[in-house]
């Protein structure tokens, strides 16, 4: 079974790398015009009644973009930890639903989600580095599994918070008779990374456990052989002493 460890390690690495790629598709949204990052956004809203706002407006990882068909355009300056907070984003309360006014809930949900995306990426990168050791050692597999598990934890938090603020925000806009829709690409990439990290964690842990039972069984058999050999030597010595006593 020890020969299967490289296979589990390789599969774990492949899934982990796939999850990191999916993360980048989300994290780079709003920064470039390349596909598929220019298709990735969390929420799109019709904001024709909001002064100075793009119509429609799309919330991406780095800011608010306009839309040209299915693609992000006119994204403007990049804003680190860009929150979803329409009154703050547009600098006005006019034309916005009352559900966004006087609350910091959406600001906090989106800010923490932004941070958790990055933390998940950092631990996923650590897991990729240690994943090379998972191909040949049990310790490397367990270390990679731990790093992947931490990445999974933060990615799940990011996905849950992103889902919370975007779904509730969409519902509030719709209740105000404004068209609003979720970004299926950002959702797919985000939750796809969760699935990839989960499977990667499982595979790394399986790779670490492979061969452990065989090693212990081998040690037990070796110990039994030594014990049997010792008993045989003792019996031989007793027989020799008896023969000598008979001749005497």
UniProtKB/TrEMBL annotation:
The keyword Repressor does not apply. GO terms for biological process: cortical actin cytoskeleton organization; endocytosis; fungal-type cell wall organization; septin cytoskeleton organization. It holds the Pfam family SUR7. InterPro entries: SUR7/Rim9-like_fungi (IPR009571). GO terms for cellular component: cell cortex; membrane raft; plasma membrane. Residues 211-248 are annotated as: Disordered. This is SUR7/PalI family-domain-containing protein. It comes from Elsinoe ampelina.
């Amino acid at each position: 079974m020890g020969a299967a460890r490289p296979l589990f390690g390789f599969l774990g690495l492949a899934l982990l790398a796939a999850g990191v790629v999916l993360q980048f598709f989300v994290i780079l949204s709003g920064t470039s015009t390349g596909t598929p990052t220019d298709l990735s956004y969390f929420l799109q809203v019709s904001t024709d009644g909001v002064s100075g706002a793009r119509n429609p407006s799309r919330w991406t990882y780095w800011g608010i973009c306009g839309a040209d068909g299915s693609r992000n355009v006119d994204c403007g300056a990049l804003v680190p930890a860009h929150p979803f907070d329409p009154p703050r984003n547009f600098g006005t309360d006019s034309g916005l639903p009352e559900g966004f006014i006087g609350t910091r809930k959406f600001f906090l949900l989106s800010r923490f989600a932004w941070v958790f995306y990055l933390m998940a990426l950092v631990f996923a990168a650590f897991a990729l580095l240690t994943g090379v050791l998972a191909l040949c050692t049990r310790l490397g597999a367990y270390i990679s599994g731990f790093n992947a598990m931490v990445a999974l934890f933060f990615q799940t938090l990011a996905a849950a918070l992103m889902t919370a603020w975007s779904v509730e925000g969409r519902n509030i806009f719709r209740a105000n008779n404004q068209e609003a829709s979720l970004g299926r690409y950002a959702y797919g990439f985000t939750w796809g990374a969760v699935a990839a990290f989960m499977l990667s964690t499982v595979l790394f842990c399986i790779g670490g456990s492979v061969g452990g039972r065989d090693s212990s069984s081998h040690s037990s058999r070796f110990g039994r052989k030594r014990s049997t050999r010792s008993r045989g030597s003792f019996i031989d010595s007793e027989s020799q002493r008896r023969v000598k006593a008979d001749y005497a």
